[in-house]
Amino acid sequence: MDKLTDDIPRCYFNHSVQFFYEQSGKNISAHWRPRDYVVVSLGMGVSVIVILANILVMVAIFINRRFHFPIYYLLGNLAAADLFSGIAYLHLMFHTGPWTIKLSQNQWFVRQTLIDSSLTASVLNLLAIALERHQTIFTMQLHSKMTNRRVVLLIAAIWGLAIFMGLVPTMGWHCLCDLDNCSTMAPMYQRSYLVFWAVLNLFTFSLMVAAYTRIFVYVRHKSQRMSQHTSQIRHKETVFNLMKTVSMILGCFVICWTPGLVLLMLDGLGCESCQVLRYEKYCLVLAECNSLVNPIIYSFRDTDMLQTFKRILCCLCRRGGAGHKDTLSGTRCNTLEQERERDVLQRQDLNESG
């Protein structure tokens, strides 16, 4: 049997992960059951699709110059966060079920840190997108005038803060020295940390929903005062379409993640009658599905993004020798010509609407 750490009394740094699971009441099987095979297989399949879909979004934004604006950089960074989420979930699938018993404490913390950091990165990206839309929409602009340097610094800050938040439990906010306050869903985390993390994210969601509601009210009021010239109608529709896209992304994120966050908060508050373990798996799957929803929204809401997806897939299907090179070159040329025409129309629209 494990012994208490000698240098830090009443701490359990030398104990196994199974010990904490048993203490919290979250028992894990040492043998593979049919349910375990189904969960792991589905989880791996979803993770691979999430990874490939978000790589496609990032490549589309990279090769199409029409997407080289702050809002699309932030959307691309959101896709990177979803890609990270897919990798974290795939890593979880290789370290769950009966495999959990074999994990060391450090391996368990790494597993949880990846999940926590990916969610924090997504939340911060959505907050940054909300602020960018607030800045541009209230001046009836299509794109922000933020410099590339500031966008890069913002993206770096998002990932730095996300990684820091994911590492907070390993830096001391755990229950290795306080077994009475260990949570049930995350048996090595303190209940107070789960409450803090859930409340912080739910509060951020509320701020973003309020921001988008205010933006929609403003845009609708502003549009009613615009004349009915064709160019102004086209500009108004462009603004609305982009707003609808980012709002759908935010809405799906809130729908997919709110049940899990509420469950974490109930666990953190010590609700014994809530049966959090009964719904844990479903909330985790729902949360992971969000990383697959965003590429679908891009496809159906943004015609240019959909066309870029098709070009990329066609290039991949026609790979091989000079034919592949010519196809990719032709794709870039066609894309650039269309971008120039659209940029001219957008500048005309902005001048007339101003």
Automatic annotation (TrEMBL):
InterPro entries on file: GPCR_Rhodpsn (IPR000276), GPCR_Rhodpsn_7TM (IPR017452), LPA_rcpt (IPR004065), LPA_rcpt_EDG2 (IPR002277)
Membrane topology per the entry is: Multi-pass membrane protein
Q: Which UniProt keywords apply?
A: Cell membrane, Disulfide bond, Endosome, G-protein coupled receptor, Glycoprotein, Membrane, Receptor, Transducer, Transmembrane, Transmembrane helix
List locations, semicolon-separated.
Cell membrane; Cell surface; Endosome
Among SUPFAM superfamilies, the record links this protein to: Family A G protein-coupled receptor-like (SSF81321)
UniProt entry tagged with the keyword Membrane: yes
Transmembrane portions of the chain: 37-64, 71-94, 114-131, 151-174, 194-219, 239-266
Q: Which residues form the signal peptide?
A: none
The keyword Hydrolase is assigned to this record: no
G-protein coupled receptors family 1 profile domain span:
53-298
Which domain of life does the protein's organism represent? Eukaryota
PANTHER family referenced in this protein's UniProt entry, alphabetically: G-PROTEIN COUPLED RECEPTOR
Q: Which family is it part of?
A: Belongs to the G-protein coupled receptor 1 family.
Please identify the protein, giving its name as recorded: Lysophosphatidic acid receptor 2 isoform X2
